[in-house]
Amino acid sequence: MNLSDGVINLESGSETEESDGVTLEQSTTGGKAQVIEISSDEEVTVPQEPEAEVVHLRSESPPATPVEQAREKAGEKRKPEESTPQRQLRLKLAEAAERRLHHQNEPAKKPNKRQQLHSIEKNATVELKHRAKLLPTSIDDRSSRIRLISNPDYCAQFGLVADKDTASLSDLVGSKDLIRTYQFNMLIDFDYLSRFVTSKDVEFTLINKSDDDHLHIKDQSWERYKIHTIDVSSKLPKYGTHHTKMMVNFYRDDTCQIVLHTMNLTEADHKIQTQMCWVSPQLEMHKDVNDWFDFNQPNLSLVEETGLVFKRDFIAYLLTYENNDINKLIDQVAKYDFSPIDVVFVASTPGHYQYTDRNKLTNPSSKPMFGYGRLWQVIHILKLQSLMGKLVGQVSTIAGPCDNWKRNVFVHVLTSCVEKGYPISKKADYKYVANKNKVEPVIIWPTVTEILKSCAAPLSGIALHLTSRGKWAAYERQFSEIKNYFHKWSCVDEPKLSKAGRSNLAPHVKTYTVTEDNFKTLKWFLMTSANISHQAWGKPKGYNTIEYDICSFEAGIFIAPQLLKVKSNLENKTQILEPTYGRDSVVDEHSLSGSVCKIGLRLPYDTPLKKYTATDKAWSQPDSDQFF
Q: Which UniProt keywords apply (predicted)?
């Protein structure tokens, strides 16, 4: 992919590098299997899938079985092949296709009355001009742009009323008018996802590492649903992870919605962890074909043309997959009008990145960056740098340091991204000193006690990864440094006292924000799939340079108050983000009175934050292994 002067060259695309390996395991609690996310620093070698070829059905008898066809395709005829996850997946697909073909050749049965009625209703859909029931971006234009994902089981367990204004998984994929969905994720349990789908003829495209560790699809699902898989293994370097959690949904009325969220598509992630999402407005198709490439122009203004910049950056991200099927998705989304969108797309994609002229990176014509470079770029373009306050990072994984010493991507890189001035990367011996340095690093991380009190007890912490010591001495050096910045997930002792309503639901959400007035307001807010990990954000190649390597695919949305479209702000008052708890809207009835317009931003955690005491222990490995 070439980006020249902010314009995307749609004819090419390339990039590659590294990230943390991930596997999928099953853990049993109370006799019920649950799919759990596990991270690993070990290298995982995944064989590349051969190019697909057309399988010709021959009339000679006996007909070739799917297994024999696969062997012939490889030129080995009867020679046994090594069984790989990709091969098993292909064979499942071939066998399902064969069964469907068998059903098609059977004599047609006369439809019963119920089937006839369904056929009439299906054909009448277009004539009735039925509008799909789609989830709005927010309750109103002054409500939170990000939503908590509902968890009725958790609320019932602790007797809480904490799901107000939340979005359910059914809201995201349950429309009867859903005809096509692209699911980008790390772990996909398709059979769990399909429980929430009601559309009869939806077509699924699943994008992840398509091996048995990351993708679960039962044999009968291949027959029942139209499923396509895109294996991204070849795009991932050592320790690389396809960590993006995103949906692109197309509906019968020619509308489209994009969903960015924090949840692996598994039952465990859905039920025992705190999750959030952003849902785009209902995007309409451009009426004029000439508008399809409205994003592909220089000098786009992030403030005045936020939606077009989102579209440009979104397509730039998709191009890095270098995949023909994803290119078809690009062709589709290019047809849509993104102007209603009022947030910024911030993503990471594997590759080596180097920039020499800092001043050009904040010009309107500058090309979009990836990783921590993009966060730095957006903050500086919008003039949101800080000389004071707290940078609050709340994640579910803290990976190893950037080097053999103790340099951490949050303390030494992200803090520099939000501060005024240079360099972007701090030296390894940097330590924050109150009243001397600019922005204070604050990390929200659950204690052992908090996890053990969570809804699934120790199982709640299975997806929380932090190595406090290990074979690599740098783990211990990093932990001894960053634990000084640790704050608890919740500041209350009882679930019913939690303002956010998620105190006993372990976090899997990842958020970053700056507050300069101790959470009275937020300067900006980022919800993303990216943890505190140099694999996700980028590993600096040196001090005071903008050169780094990214290993993983990540995606998130950046919310800045001045970009938000608020119809009720008729007097163009200064817009500010105000934290909300347990609801999406600002409680203040006079939120439009005075000189400011208050816009809600829902926090998943409670404030004021409570710093670790001397007796608090962080949930970390290897100590937490004792519970399993």
A: DNA damage, DNA repair, Exonuclease, Hydrolase, Nuclease, Nucleus
